[in-house]
Design goal:
binds flavin mononucleotide; 2 domains; rod-shaped; alpha/beta; Rossmann fold
């Protein structure tokens, strides 16, 4: 279960009421919620929570002095991958200012993922009371936040599953390609080397027949063996992907990998010699 902490500053109790309503909403949404005034909170405990909500009253257009001190203390705490949101209380004046703007700035500095825009409770006077229905409204906001968190997790899981599926599909194609290359390539060399041998070899044979025949026969025997092993590996694997275990037990993978690379190497040597002696 995800854990949330609601931290508040409150002189006359209005911001505390908002904090409590938000907590109830979050709890209703299935989160475990703690709440505390900033004065009584040990900032080391921030580590224990996944969601951090901080709120306070608006004083002189900004955050209260206590809140500013608190924000300065927590700004250096290593927070990690957590969600955050800011709330405030203030009057309904046009130039009332905002405590939550500063709180939000600090939440962003702490690299929290902001889960909700600024949440504001309006007071009629500096001592309150809060506007009617603020409590219900804040509970609903808490519920919305918890929904977002639950859905963002679900969405994250879905994205991860899609990514895994894509990766496993890519692995499947790469595996198939590997068998095709390791089986098909050598078979091609086998046919080519067989053709050369039956027609008396290429120009290299006239210069050094013994070495040429050695290369040709090693190409024929290696590529024939490896090609057949590679293609049968591909067929086995295609019929049942979990035959990989059987293939491993048969050491077929190792044989094909070793034989395939040797075939390519022998062919490479032959091509280099052919270019050097016959073309240049
Ligand atoms: C010293 C002081 C300065 C205030 N300055 C503002 C202000 O600039 N803008 C505003 O809207 N309210 C201002 N208020 C009213 C507070 O916003 C209000 O007291 C607060 O929201 C009540 O919350 P509380 O009960 O949690 O303390 C001020 C209040 C005090 C005591």
């Amino acid at each position: 279960m995800k854990k949330a902490i609601i931290l508040y500053d409150s002189v006359y109790g209005n911001t505390k009421k908002v904090a409590m309503s938000l907590s109830r909403g979050l709890e209703a949404g299935g989160l475990y919620v703690d709440s505390s005034s900033i004065q009584n909170f040990d900032i080391v405990k921030l580590e224990n929570y996944d969601i951090i909500g901080i709120g306070g009253p608006t004083h002189f257009h900004g955050a209260s002095k206590q809140m500013k001190l608190f924000l300065n203390r927590i700004r250096h705490v290593k927070i990690g991958n957590k969600y955050g949101f800011a709330f405030e209380t203030k009057t309904d004046f046009r130039l009332a200012g905002s405590a939550a703007k500063r709180i939000m700035r600090y939440l962003k500095k702490m690299k929290l993922k902001i889960i909700h825009s600024i949440i504001t409770g309006i007071v009629f006077d500096k001592e309150g009371p809060l506007q009617e229905s603020t409590s219900d409204m804040m509970e609903q906001v808490g519920l919305n936040i918890s929904d977002k968190i639950n859905n963002s997790n679900t969405q994250k899981d879905i994205n991860q599953k899609i990514k895994n599926l894509k990766n496993s599909n890519i692995n499947l194609y790469l595996n198939r390609l590997k068998w095709v290359l390791l089986g098909g390539g050598p078979i091609f060399f086998f046919v080519r080397a067989f053709y050369l041998a039956s027609t008396g070899g290429d120009c290299f044979g006239t210069i050094n027949p013994i070495f040429s025949w050695f290369l040709l026969s090693s190409e024929i025997s290696l590529s024939g063996m490896v090609g057949v092993a590679g293609i049968s590996g591909l067929i086995l694997w295609k019929r049942k992907a979990n035959q990989m275990e059987t293939l491993k037990k048969l050491n077929l993978r190792k044989i094909v990998l070793f034989g395939g690379s040797t075939t390519y190497m022998v062919h490479f040597i032959r091509v280099v010699i052919w270019i050097m002696l016959c073309v240049i």
